[in-house]
Design goal:
- The structure holds 2 protein chains of 2 kinds.
- Chain A is mainly α.
- Chain A has 8 helices and no strands.
- Chain A has 2 domains: about 100 residues, no CATH class; about 70 residues, no CATH class.
- Chain A starts with 16 loop residues before the first helix and ends in a 10-residue tail after the last helix.
- The mean pLDDT of chain A is about 85.
- Chain B is of the alpha/beta class.
- Chain B has a domain of about 130 residues: 3-Layer(aba) Sandwich (Rossmann fold).
- In chain B, helix 4 packs across helix 5 and helix 4 runs parallel beside helix 6.
- Chain B is globular.
- The mean pLDDT of chain B is about 90.
- Classes of the chains: A mainly alpha, B alpha/beta.
- Chains A and B meet through helix 7 and helix 8 of A and helix 3 and helix 4 of B.
């Protein structure tokens, strides 16, 4: 789950990235066999309390769930059709809790700290000639460019609407791809101007 | 700066996409403030891209502060800093501190030094509060300033500005101009704003891949303006 980093420091910012990721992995392991709806409900409440403790900017992040309602609806409908609505609710709350917890980690962890934590896991990539630093750079750039791509889509949609009065929808896909390629070309040039992507594993 | 500000182009020819964009250009650039003007496609952008190895000439030599572009292209990014038109194309990290730290690392610092150096680098511009900010929350002018800080920490001898003012409002542009004027580096500035070259030592007018006029800014600007009005 990719969200925006919270610039205001919270208590969760102070916890090392490795611990947060380990806690996330542990919680997902522990809750995966649980099939009790009250327990999962309590977990959701605990997660919401966690968000509240991080402040109003964190609570506003809950809005990201809005985009996921269709997925949740399909999931529930599937289980209801299978005759096991309660189990569907358990699955749904489990998913919801994990999404929110993962999001809490990304909200409070700087990209470089995150990459430091996962770099040991990426190290085997070095055996096939891929620099973990290059992978880290790739991930950082992806996070950086997501808001930019949204803005690009909005700009295309706006110019479409300005001339047609309708939303662009799928018609914007081709121009969007072309603009994205242009953007990546410019960015590659700017990266090269600063010496290019790091190759060595400099410490 | 180890070397005197000297950039030399010797009979440089460059084609891009089957079109000659620089045609046998020879120049010696020793002044501290040099501007470049010309219509779109005149070769300005290509010329400055030769200076830090983004483009290599088909023939001729490019020497930047003692570095031969053909012999040591890897040295060029640290010698020639580049500020592009759109800061959104240039900023590659999600937060301000990471963006600065990347430059420090590219300049040869260890990762730890780079991270610790980001805040002091921002503090030099009175922007230490920016360190944790997500870059997408900065205004256009702030993004451009971040790009400049990220280039300055690499301690280049030359800084190239490729139309840096295109999307800035006038007050922001003036603030950046004041900042640029105070830089100790040699500056090459491409701009379409006719009043962007106040205090510049020299102005080059490029036209169809050649230097059409070269001299004091006022003279060159007058000729360029007359040329533009004749076309209108």
């Amino acid at each position: 789950m990719i969200s925006l980093y919270l610039p205001e420091r919270t208590w969760l910012h102070a916890i090392p990235a490795g611990w947060k990721l380990a806690a996330l992995a542990l919680i997902s392991l522990v809750i995966s066999p649980i099939e009790s709806l009250p327990v999962m409900g309590a977990l959701i409440l605990a997660v919401l309390a966690l968000y509240a403790s991080l402040g109003s900017a964190a609570l506003r992040q809950l809005a990201l769930l809005r985009a996921m309602w269709p997925l949740f609806a399909i999931l529930l409908a599937f289980h209801w059709w299978n005759g096991d609505l309660i189990f569907g609710l358990v699955v749904l709350t489990r998913l919801l809790a994990m999404i929110l917890l993962a999001n809490a980690v990304t909200m409070t962890t700087r990209m470089d700290a995150m990459m430091d934590a996962v770099e040991p896991i990426l190290r085997p990539l070095g055996w096939v000639g891929l620099s973990p630093r290059a992978v880290a750079l790739m991930v950082a750039m992806m996070i950086r460019f997501i808001p930019l791509l949204f803005a690009l889509w909005e700009a295309l949609n706006e110019s479409y609407r300005a001339r047609t009065g309708k939303r662009g929808g799928w018609r914007l896909l081709a121009p969007f791809c072309i603009q994205t390629l242009r953007l990546s070309h410019h960015t590659a040039e700017a990266l090269a101007a600063r010496g290019g992507a790091p190759r060595g594993d400099r410490r | 700066m180890p070397n005197a500000p000297l950039i030399r182009l010797d009979h440089v020819t460059l084609s891009r996409g089957g079109r000659v964009v620089l045609d046998d250009v020879s120049l010696e650039l020793t002044e501290r403030r040099i501007g470049l003007i010309g219509t779109n496609g005149s070769g300005k952008s290509s010329l400055v891209r030769l200076l830090n190895g983004l483009l290599t000439p088909d023939s001729g030599r490019v020497i930047v502060h003692g570095i031969d572009a053909a012999e040591a292209p890897a040295e060029l990014p640290r010698t020639v800093g580049f500020i592009f038109q759109n800061p959104d194309h240039q900023i590659i990290f999600p937060t301000v501190a990471e963006e600065i730290a990347f430059s420090l690392e590219q300049a040869g610092r260890s990762r730890r030094e780079a991270r610790e150096g980001a805040v002091p680098a921002l503090a030099r511009f009175g922007r230490e509060g920016w360190a944790e900010r997500p870059v997408h929350a900065l205004s256009e002018g702030e993004k451009q300033l971040l790009c400049i800080i990220a280039v300055l920490v690499m301690e280049p001898a030359v800084i190239v500005f490729d139309e840096p003012f295109s999307s800035l409002d006038l007050p922001t542009r003036r603030r950046l101009e004041t900042l640029i004027a105070a830089l100790p580096q040699q500056v090459l500035m491409i701009a379409h704003e006719m009043d962007a070259f106040a205090g510049y030592d020299r102005l080059l007018w490029l036209h169809e891949g050649r230097v059409r006029l070269d001299g004091p800014p006022q003279e060159v600007l007058a000729a360029y303006r007359a040329f533009a009005e004749a076309l209108a």
